[in-house]
Write a structure and sequence with these properties.
Blueprint (H helix, E strand, L loop, with lengths): L1 H30 L3 E6 L4 E4 L1 H7 L3 H4 L4 H6 L7 H8 L3 E6 L5 E10 L5 E10 L1 H28 L13 H13 L6 E5 L5 H11 L7 E5 L5 H9 E2 L12 E2 L1 H4 L4 E5 L6 H13 L1 E3 L6 E3 L3 E6 L3 H6 L5 H7 L2 E5 L9 H16 L4 E2 L1 H9 L5 H15 L4 E2 L6 H4 L11 H20 L2 H8 L3 H10 L6
Parallel strand pairs: 6-13, 6-14, 7-10, 10-13, 15-16
Antiparallel strand pairs: 1-2, 1-5, 3-4, 4-5, 8-9, 11-12
Length: about 475
């Protein structure tokens, strides 16, 4: 009898200890600032604390006694760390989205009994909604900074005054008048002209008179960028869109040109696949970044330019007809320099002043040289004239630019196909002569292609055909 009483007292003492331990554990769980979520080995919810309710917005009565599989199916959670712990039998940490769209960081810990069997999963919960928001803001800030830096580099290059368009010819006067007239509207402009005629200058003039120099003027040369990179340059890309892509992504030129002007130089070299995407962007005033899903709207004036005959390209099915007519809202044609010879003396004097200022010279040009330069046909147009004037100035041994400094290609007017020559042969002789003489002048087939206004592959094909590759 005495032994039974002693055993009862011992049990009672142990029970009191357990109760005290339970109260202590209860107080710890309840007072924890982090959320606590306890489930059994089958995924049935046994306990959640007050902090869990505060963080998630889910009341204990909504989940207690329910299996997590059912709660996930009901939309309470996008996934369950408890179920992952039961499956893997190890600590698991995941980002979880709960039904009110809060983002939480949850870590599930498996609890094993003395036999090694799983009997509880205790989950620690932290609210990371604010952290996710801050990360998103940081990414947006980095993207905005990159955008501003790119805009700034473009704006620094944007310096155009009326003095930069040097002309007195009626043809150029008409172009300038038209450019000024359409500057205040956002109609698409297509500028056509040979290489070196000043297409970019006209585009900048339209921008300056309309949008103003405080707005971005963004230029891209469609012929200078590889096809596989051109789409991401135009439309930008999301982080991880392809190998080597920036983690934060990159805004495209359409975004950078927002509220300004996007100048698409050498539009005739745009690949057919991109022509489709460009047409949609122009028509809808919206696009999607490479690797993205979000539609981005933009408001920018489109000015395109080319030295190619796009109407002919349309007939040859190498340029989309619908894009051609979309670009042809306001066409502007720039005459080659040989058709406005009255501009040559003005341009010569402009370049003389320009290089005198740049190099600290005080050089002058004699009238006979100007007359000779006026006679020349200038296949490379204003750009070629500028290069020739610079060459004569830097090589002149005295302060005077005389006839002996005029390049042989300009002095030699003797070439012409012989009479009675078949047209095909005359064309070949002329092509061979122009290729050969321009290579003598510039020493680069790439430069020859630029001067003659044709692409490099055409030049190289003709060089091989006429046996000029050894030069």
């Amino acid at each position: 009898m005495l032994g039974d009483i002693e055993n009862m007292e011992k049990v009672s003492t142990e029970l009191s200890s357990v109760k005290e331990l339970f109260k202590e554990l209860e107080a710890i769980i309840s007072s924890s600032y982090d959320g606590m979520f306890i489930a059994d080995e089958k995924g049935v919810v046994l306990r959640v604390n007050v902090a869990y309710e505060r963080i998630t917005g889910i009341r204990a009565s909504e989940v207690l006694g329910k299996n997590l599989k059912d709660l996930v199916a009901a939309g309470y959670y996008d996934q369950s760390v408890t179920l992952l712990v039961i499956e893997k039998r190890e600590i698991v940490t995941i980002n979880q989205t709960v039904k009110n769209n809060n983002k939480i960081l949850v870590t599930g810990n498996p609890i094993f009994d003395e036999k090694g069997d799983l009997f509880r999963v205790v989950t620690n919960v932290r609210d990371i909604t604010e952290l996710v928001s801050l990360q998103s803001q940081l990414l947006k800030t980095k993207e905005q900074t990159l955008k501003y830096k790119t805009e700034l580099s473009h704006l620094r290059a944007l310096h155009i005054g009326n003095k930069e368009i040097i002309s007195r010819s009626p043809k150029m006067a008409q172009v300038i008048e038209l450019a000024t007239k359409i500057a205040d509207v956002d109609s698409i402009v297509l500028i056509n002209g040979e290489s070196g005629t000043g297409k970019e200058l006209i585009a900048k003039l339209i921008h300056k008179k309309g949008k103003g120099t405080s707005k971005p003027f963004i230029k891209i040369n469609c012929a200078a960028i590889p096809e596989q990179l051109l789409e991401s340059e135009l439309f930008g890309y999301e982080g991880g869109a392809f190998t080597g892509a920036r983690k934060e992504g990159k805004p495209g030129l359409f975004e950078l040109a927002h509220n300004g002007t996007l100048f698409l130089d050498e539009i005739g070299d745009l690949p057919l696949l991109l022509q489709v995407k460009l047409l949609r962007a122009i028509q809808e005033k919206e696009f999607i970044r490479v690797g993205g899903t979000k539609t981005i709207t933009f408001n920018a004036r489109i000015i395109a330019a080319t030295h190619r005959n796009i109407a002919k390209m349309v007939k040859e099915d190498v340029f989309r007809e619908d894009l051609y007519y979309r670009l042809m809202v306001v066409p502007i044609y720039l005459s080659p320099l040989r058709e406005r010879k009255e501009d040559v003396p003005l341009l010569i004097m402009h370049f003389i002043d320009k290089f005198n200022n740049r190099f600290g010279f005080n050089k002058k040009i004699i009238p006979q040289v100007i007359d000779k330069l006026v006679e020349y046909s200038w296949p490379g147009n204003v750009r070629e004239l500028e290069n020739i004037v610079e060459r004569m100035m830097v090589t002149a041994p005295t302060e005077e630019i005389t006839m002996n400094l005029v390049p042989e290609t300009i002095m030699d007017k003797s070439f012409s196909p012989k009479r009675l020559t078949k047209l095909k042969d005359a064309v070949e002789e002329t092509e061979k002569y122009l290729l050969s003489e321009n290579f003598k002048e510039y020493g680069s087939w790439k430069k020859v292609a630029e001067i003659l206004g044709i692409d490099r592959t055409t030049v190289f094909r003709k060089v091989v055909r006429y046996g000029l590759e050894k030069r």
